[in-house]
Amino acid sequence: MFNDMSVVTTAISSFNNAALFSPYFFVVALFSIPLFIMAFLYGQEFVSRFGWARADIESKIGFFGLLSLVFWMLLIGGNYAVIRDSVSLLPTMIAIVLFISMIFITNRLKKWNYFEKKYSKKSRWVIFIIFLMLAAFSAMPTWWGILLQLSAVLCGVIVGDRLNKNLSDFFVPVVVFGLMTALLLMQPEFFRFGQLGNLTFVHILALLFTGFFCVTAFAAKYTNTRSKIYNSAYVKLKWLFRILSVLGLILFVLTESVPIFLGLMAVCMLSEMLTIYHSKSISDHIFKQSWALALISFGIITICPLITMLGIIYLGFVSPKVNLKDFIKLL
Is 248 within 8 Å of 260 (Cβ atoms)? Predict the structure, then answer.
């Protein structure tokens, strides 16, 4: 009646899903606190030895943040064969993330002329082939997953190498991190984050914090202060956004739906953009602090301490004292 192998596979899958219920990422973050403290105290001095300076810190953080994310995605070893839905968009979205990330990484390496200075042509080809093999075989055991990731990385490298325009140090990384946060919610079991439909309060809170800081950084970066909106219209619009945010938050907690999460983040971003546009001036540190906090929270939920430490180091460079009142005023 039952195939023996399918019974064993189902049993293993059920056990793994049961083990994913607890917020493992939060436990890892707690045990990593000493590492984070060391990054806060000595991180600036450490990276300064490698030529990092306040003038180009944003460029370095964006590059190494995306590079860490790419290696995390490849080494985490998600199995496409166990995707819940046969027509899931998850593999396509992962390929898009890898493609965009490799465009940015290759564009930066070309701009800095890094490999040409340190490695011969033969060595560069060896490194490139090894990286392609890692991208391909990390998608085993599905043959189409191998082709998908290999083509995404290869096309990203080609486009990034041919692209003469310098990409933004912030726009590409924040979009990729925001997209990856939504992918964690799309199928959390694939990324060993948790169980879809059975996320704990800690899971939901971590996702909300990460998404909030990403959209706050985006709004603060690309919205200028104008102070041209009538106060009566501003107050009505703000209350409209607040009501929509509360309704979206309730629906998200109840359903754990990706579209509702994206809609909630969009409403929060529009509300913050409205506040910034209506203001005469805002704190200069809001963008940098929110970007640093987005990196920190994203590294925590993906169990990638390197990204968290990058965020802590960036926060130390720009403004280590975070004023929560500045963020509350945006809501």
Answer: yes
The overall average pLDDT reported for the chain is 84
Residue pair 35/309 in contact (Cβ under 8 Å)? The answer is yes
Give the separation between CA 208 and CA 181, rounded to whole angstroms.
9
In angstroms, how far apart are the furthest CA atoms of the chain? 72
> Residue 293 and residue 285: Cα distance in Å, rounded?
12
User: How many angstroms separate the Cα of 328 from the Cα of each of 42, 63, 204, 237, 325?
Assistant: 30, 30, 20, 17, 5
Residue 215: burial class (beta carbons within 10 Å; 0-12, 13-18, 19+):
buried
Q: How many CB atoms lie within 10 A of CB 45?
A: 9
The distance of Cα 80 from the centroid of its chain, to the nearest Å, equals 21
**Interhelix angle 33-48/305-318, nearest 10 degrees:** 60
The string of pLDDT tens digits covering residues 24-64 is 889 899 999 999 999 999 888 888 888 788 778 888 898 99
pLDDT attached to residue 90: 84
Q: Are 76 and 113 in contact (CB under 8 A)?
A: no
Give the residue among 132, 136, 279 at the shortest CA–CA distance from 220: 279
Coil, helix or strand for 68? Answer: helix
- Residue pair 262/212 in contact by the 8 Å Cβ criterion: no
**Number of residues that make up the chain:** 331
pLDDT tens digit sequence for 134-145 = 888 887 778 888
Show the tokens assigned to 38: 């060391």
Other beta carbons within 10 angstroms of residue 19's beta carbon come to 11
Which amino acid is residue 86, in one-letter code? S
Q: Where are the domains of the chain?
A: 23-52+200-331, 57-197
